[in-house]
Amino acid sequence: MVALDIDGTLVDHEGVLPNEVRRSVRRVTAAGVPVVLTTGRSWHATRPVFEQLGLPNGPVVASNGAVTVDFPPFEVRQVVTFNPADVISRVLREHPSAAIAAEVVGQGYRVTKQFPDGDLTGHIEEVSVDDLAGTDVTRIVVRDPESSDVEFIDLAQRLGLHGVSYSVGWSAWLDIAPAGVNKASALAGVVAELGCTAADVLAIGDGRNDVEMLTWAGRGVAVGDACAEVQAAADHVTATFAEHGTAVELDRWFGARRASRRVSALSTLAS
Q1: pLDDT at residue 270, as a whole number
Q2: What is the Cα–Cα distance from 36 to 249, expressed in whole angstroms?
Q3: Of 83, 238, 247, 95, whose CA–CA distance to 164 is shortest?
Q4: Tell me, what's the pLDDT at 269?
Q5: What is the β-pairing status of strands 99-104 and 75-79?
Q6: How far is 145 from 158, CA to CA, in rounded Å?
Q7: Which of 122, 177, 217, 245 could tie 203 with a disulfide, CB 3.0–4.6 Å?
Q8: Could you count the other beta carbons within 10 Å of the beta carbon of residue 58?
Q9: CATH no. for residue 101?
Q10: Average pLDDT per 10 consecutive residues for the chain, totaling 271 residues
């Protein structure tokens, strides 16, 4: 099985999917190997990439492992939630200017204040802090465009978060999920259903939220742009995104030459 992060791995920060990467992913599916998108994105933000890639029916891991769906047709496999009240209180005590969002699966987000344009997709509803804290959620997103990722790493450490999982994005973005929930935990359930193990998985990613996945997979590969922490967790570091690092790694195992060898071998067997 191949597990692929989306942002910084399949698409750039403008959301553009290079043709080279698309072709490489399609070679994987043509070989009959399942491709599972495994992303911090919500499902509704993941669907366009799924469709651009032309993936066949299968599982998708979204929201950093808190949501697993099948598509098409859309069917929720698993949703893991937690009570966000304590986390929200701690975040605002440490960082009162932060904007906080809670995902509404398949629809959008409820937010305490508006996020920068383009940060969130789907239906956005602005609510009070009390309203947001009063309902169990799949994840909480904390954002402050005036801060940096370094400041948010420090914020996460100061919060002393217990009973939840968290990861800091490439910008001042903090994802907080239920305890023990991450991309690897969700993928473990997916591979079990497919009759595979972690050793059978090639995983590619570039973010801090990919560390558990890259460590867990039989072959964990970091895109060359990944920070040192992510590269250290990987078994291999491929080329940068601009150099189509994801395509380079996939073509290593599913390139045109390998595909032609498989076709030739099948023809020999058939004869």
Answers
A1: 39
A2: 16
A3: 83
A4: 35
A5: unpaired
A6: 19
A7: 217
A8: 18
A9: 3.30.1240.10
A10: 97 94 97 96 94 97 95 94 92 90 92 91 95 93 84 78 63 83 96 94 95 97 96 98 98 75 40 37
Contacts for 260-263: CB closer than 8 Å, 24+ residues apart? 262/31
- Please list, in sequence order, all residues whose beta carbon lies within 8 angstroms of the beta carbon of residue 264, skipping any fewer than 6 positions away: none
Structure tokens at 246: 């994801």
Q: How crowded is the C-beta side of 11, counted as CA atoms within 13 Å?
A: 17
* CA contacts within 13 A on the Cβ side of 129: 15
Domain hosting residue 33, numbered range = 2-79+182-270
SS3 state of residue 87: helix
Taking each helix axis from N to C terminus, what angle separates 149-159 and 85-94, rounded to the nearest 10 degrees? 120
Q: Using CA atoms in the order 224, 230, 233, 235, what is the torsion angle rounded to 10 degrees?
A: -10
Residue with tokens 């690897």: 184
Instruction: Out of 160, 178, 196, pick the residue that ends a domain.
Output: 178
Domain termination site, one of 178, 193, 217: 178
State the pTM of this model. 0.86
Residue found under tokens 């669907």 = 47
- Copy the structure tokens of residue 206: 């570039």
Q: What is the spatial distance between Cα 198 and Cα 166, in angstroms, rounded to a whole number?
A: 22
